[in-house]
C-alpha cells in the first residue's frame, strides 16, 4: 500500500489490521475488515466510497467514539480514544451540531467555555472564538441566530466549533453534503487554507467522487475494505483513467473479477 508520508514524519493516523464490528449481541457484524493505511500529516486525505461502505464508522473509530474496534489504530502518536487526543482532534459529524436559538458567536462562546473553562481563560477564549469565526468567513454573520443561517453557513459554524481548540487533526464527515456547487467550492478552498495556514491534517469523507480531485491523497473504500490509497494523479495514471471516478470503477471491476476467480473451484478455472 502506498504511503505518501515524508520519511521520519509519523503519520497523523496509522492503522494496521483494523477491524470494527457494529450492532448488538447476535446482530454484531464486521463492517470494517482488516484495514491498513496511513493518513499523512499536513495534507487533505479524502475518504471516499459508496454509501454504507464504512466511512463514518472509520471516522468514529479514529476519534475514539466507536465500540468493538480491534487491531492497531494510532492517532497523532497515541492509541485512538486516548484522553490526550481530546483537544488535538476536531470532529464534525454529518448533522451540524449547533444551537439554533443562539447566535453564531454565542454558539462558539458556549463550546469554547466547555473546552477551556474558567475566568482566567476568558481572553484566550474570546481570541479563539474570533479567530474561528474569521477562519470560516462568518464575521459578518457573527450576530445572526444559527437557526436563520443557510445550510452552508450552519456547516461552517460546525467547522468553526471544530477549529476552536486549534486541532492538529480535523475529521470531517461528509461536510459538503446537500450544499450547492458554489458553497462546496468555498468549503474546499477553506480546507486548503486550513492545511496551508495551520499545518493541520484533514481527513474528509464524501461519496461524491468529483470531490476526490480536490484532495492531496485518497483512501478509496468499498464494503468495509480499503480498495486503494493513492494521490488522485497516481490513481488516474495507474488505472489509465481520466477521472478518479473512472479509476475507482476500474478498481471495483478488478476486485469483483478477482473475487469471482477466487470463488471458482480448480476444475472450473481450468
Ligand atoms: N448503529 C449501527 N448498528 C449496526 N450497524 C450499523 C450502525 N450504523 C451503521 N451500521 C452499518 O455499518 C456499515 C457502515 O456504515 P457507515 O455509516 O459507516 O457507512 P458510510 O460509508 O459512512 O455511509 P454513508 O455515506 O451513507 O454515511 C453499514 O453497513 C451500516 O448498515
How does this structure look, described?
By secondary structure, the protein is of the alpha/beta class. The chain has 8 helices and 10 strands. Strands 6-7-8-3-9-10 form a 6-stranded mixed β-sheet, with helices on both faces. A 4-stranded antiparallel β-sheet has the order 2-1-4-5, with helices on one face. The two termini are 31 Å apart. The structure holds adenosine-5'-triphosphate. Adenosine-5'-triphosphate (ATP) binds next to helix 1.
Chart the SSEs and their pairings.
Layout: E1 13-22, E2 29-39, E3 44-48, H1 55-63, E4 69-75, E5 78-79, E6 89-92, H2 104-115, H3 122-135, H4 151-163, E7 169-172, H5 181-198, E8 201-206, E9 217-222, E10 225-230, H6 232-238, H7 244-263, H8 266-269
Parallel strand pairs: 3-8, 3-9, 6-7, 7-8
Antiparallel strand pairs: 1-2, 1-4, 4-5, 9-10
Helix pairs in contact: 2-3, 3-4, 6-7
The structure holds adenosine-5'-triphosphate.
Strand tally, please? 10
Radius of gyration, taken over Cα atoms and rounded to an integer in Å: 20 Å
| Average pLDDT figure | 90
Dominant shape: globular
Concise summary:
The chain is an alpha/beta fold.
What labels describe this entry?
ATP-binding, four-stranded antiparallel sheet, 270 residues, binds adenosine-5'-triphosphate
Amino acid at each position: 500500500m502506498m504511503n505518501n508520508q515524508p520519511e521520519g514524519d509519523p503519520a497523523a493516523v496509522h492503522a494496521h489490521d483494523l477491524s470494527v464490528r457494529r450492532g448488538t449481541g447476535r446482530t454484531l457484524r464486521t463492517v470494517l475488515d482488516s484495514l491498513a493505511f496511513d493518513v499523512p500529516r499536513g495534507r487533505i486525505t479524502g475518504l471516499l466510497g459508496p454509501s454504507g461502505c464504512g466511512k463514518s464508522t472509520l471516522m468514529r473509530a479514529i476519534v475514539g467514539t466507536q465500540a468493538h474496534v480491534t487491531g492497531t489504530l494510532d492517532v497523532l502518536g497515541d492509541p485512538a480514544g486516548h484522553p490526550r487526543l481530546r483537544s488535538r482532534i476536531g470532529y464534525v459529524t454529518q448533522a451540524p451540531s449547533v444551537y439554533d436559538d443562539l447566535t453564531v458567536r454565542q454558539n462558539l462562546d458556549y463550546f469554547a467555555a466547555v473546552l477551556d473553562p474558567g475566568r482566567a481563560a476568558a481572553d484566550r477564549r474570546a481570541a479563539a472564538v474570533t479567530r474561528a469565526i474569521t477562519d470560516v468567513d462568518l464575521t459578518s454573520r457573527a450576530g445572526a441566530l444559527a437557526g436563520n443561517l443557510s445550510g452552508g453557513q450552519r456547516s461552517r459554524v460546525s467547522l468553526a466549533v471544530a477549529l476552536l481548540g486549534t486541532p492538529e487533526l480535523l475529521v470531517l464527515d461528509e461536510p459538503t453534503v446537500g450544499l450547492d456547487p458554489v458553497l462546496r467550492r468555498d468549503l474546499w478552498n477553506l480546507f486548503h487554507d486550513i492545511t496551508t495556514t495551520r499545518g493541520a491534517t484533514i481527513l474528509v469523507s464524501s461519496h461524491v467522487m468529483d470531490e476526490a480531485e480536490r484532495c492531496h491523497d485518497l483512501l478509496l473504500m468499498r464494503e468495509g475494505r480499503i480498495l486503494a490509497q493513492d494521490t488522485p494523479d497516481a490513481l488516474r495514471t495507474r488505472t489509465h483513467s481520466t477521472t478518479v471516478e473512472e479509476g475507482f470503477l476500474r478498481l471495483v471491476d478488478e476486485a469483483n473479477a478477482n473475487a469471482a476467480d477466487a470463488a471458482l473451484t480448480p476444475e472450473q478455472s481450468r
